[in-house]
Design a protein that fits this description.
four-stranded antiparallel beta sheet; two-stranded antiparallel ribbon
Amino acid sequence: MAPRAEDLEDQTRYRQILKIPYGDLVEFVLDYIGRRTSVIVFFWSSCILFIGIAITVRINISEYFQFKNILFHSFLGFIVFPVISIPFHELLHIIPFLLTGAKKIRIGMDLKQYIFYVTAHKHVTSSKQFILIALLPFLIFSTVLLIMIFLLPGLWKWSLAVLLFVHTTMCAGDFAMMNFFHINRHRRIYTCDDADRKEACFYEEI
């Protein structure tokens, strides 16, 4: 059971090991997405696998459809569908937050960093809880899209295969966060955001 936000202020039991202003999230993501662990190997392997699926679909349909139609579905897969998927992706972060008892959930974006995020103000989550929160959109989207690629006809296979790859790259921030917890798996770490100050804070139980 995770402690309460006020419990983390007890310096005899917990110490703050990291504070990330939301304005520095991209720097954090680039740092931890570049640290090679099994988490990151899985992430990049998924990207390679899914772009391989997209290329295979593209080759198989190239002889049966006009180029302009393929171009249109490429636009859907690379631009339109990823934009539409953003609220659904964030919703899948919200659901496990709610299951952990979070009350003050907020959705935000930082267009300067091209990021969208979900946070729960002053809600403490353990590493296991946070990994579920971070991983759920990847799991659900990947599973549903793979089924749809298999079932739907023609160029819809292509546009959805592209979306599968693009959405996976959109999960880079989630995998960076998971990698942080993986690297520190020998420590008991909790995270608690201050959404008013736009800061993500991480604490270690002493």
